[in-house]
Write a structure and sequence with these properties.
Blueprint (H helix, E strand, L loop, with lengths): L2 E12 L2 E12 L3 E5 L6 H8 L7 E6 L8 H5 L2 E4 L11 H11 L6 H7 L15 H12 L6 E5 L7 H16 L3 E5 L3 H7 L2 E6 L2 E6 L1 H8 L4 E6 L3 H9 L3 E4 L2 E5 L3 H14 L3 E7 L3 H13 L10
Helix pairs in contact: 3-4, 9-10
Length: 310
């Protein structure tokens, strides 16, 4: 697939502070790309460079074949943006806001259709200053849809939304992907990234510390699958002896590191044959959030000092 975003050796400095440090990544057309990182990691700075709001200190950046800084006017007609903490004219209504945006882009827009798409049609005639934080986010997303852009930059689009409203925004993102549009997503909800993203990049201290599909990042950086068994205090030693696998105790439960699927069957057979009482079992696997917390914590502890995007 063609690359619609290409970043190579991007550096952004503010005086003596390096906010983004030689990062490199690319985004394919039609992908949902999740750009993740804790506060202060360089995430927002990178997004603002891609949108043409900040000039790169070093490196090259291409969005839809354009330099965001020098070709910003042309680029802005081809992208949709919802920023963090979206704000607009206080007295304007959502219907009027969409009509206003459509006029700016010299387009005709179905205001009610767009509001219905994001679940805000019931507030079409409400003033902006009366909307909840979540409803304002929904309006921001509807405005990002007005010019039918090729790339959507969605910065924390579901912040402040209740679970049902979040799911409605997820459906919009899935619809955009089905229409072969590209979505550049930043979010603090790691389960959201794991569910929606084709590719993920994690940035911390200005450097990319992991990149790939959610599954590949979990596989590379996560812990092995675990079997968790509740029962007799003698279970951990039994499993440790009979299976010769790493076993630890967590809140009175035996936690067995699983290397192959047959280990699960062998563990349950060993427990049953032992006659020791047990009350339940489950398997556990790391999520993208587990891996994110581990990677960021290890880097903060100095384990990943030299890792970056190179």
């Amino acid at each position: 697939m063609p690359k619609v975003i290409e970043v190579d050796g991007l550096v952004k400095e503010y005086g003596a502070v390096t906010a983004v440090d030689r990062i490199r990544f690319s985004v394919d057309e039609g992908q949902v790309f999740a750009f993740l990182g804790p506060n202060g990691a360089g995430k927002t700075t990178t997004v603002e460079v891609l949108e043409g709001l900040r000039e790169a200190t070093k490196g090259t950046v291409s969005v839809l074949g354009l330099d965001p800084w020098t070709d910003g006017r042309e680029l802005h007609r081809q992208i949709g943006v919802i920023p963090q903490d979206f704000r607009f004219f206080e007295k304007i209504t959502p219907r009027e806001a969409i009509e206003y945006y459509a006029a700016l882009f010299d387009r005709k827009a179905d205001a009610m259709g767009l509001l219905r798409q994001v679940g805000l049609d019931d507030k079409a005639n409400a003033r902006f200053d009366t909307l909840s934080g979540g409803q304002k986010q929904k309006l921001g997303l509807s405005l990002a849809l007005v010019n039918d852009p090729k790339i959507y930059f969605l910065d924390e689009p579901t912040t402040g939304l209740d679970p049902q409203a979040r799911r409605s925004i997820w459906e919009v993102i899935k619809t955009l992907k089905a229409a072969h549009r590209t979505v550049f997503l930043t979010t603090h909800y790691l389960e959201e990234a794991e569910l929606l993203a084709d590719q993920v990049a994690i940035i911390h201290h200005g450097r990319i510390i992991a990149e790939g599909t959610p599954a590949s990042i979990i596989r590379e950086h996560g812990r092995p699958q675990r079997l968790v068994v509740e029962g007799s205090p003698g279970l951990p030693e039994l499993l440790r002896t009979s299976l010769k696998l790493p076993v630890r105790v967590d809140a009175g439960r035996a936690v067995v590191e699983i290397r192959e699927r047959k280990d699960i069957v062998q563990a349950m057979v060993a427990i049953e044959q032992s006659g020791l009482p047990w009350s339940g079992f489950a398997t556990e696997s790391d999520t993208l959030e587990d891996v994110f917390v581990s990677l960021v914590g290890r880097m903060d502890d100095g384990v990943l000092k030299s890792e970056g995007s190179a």
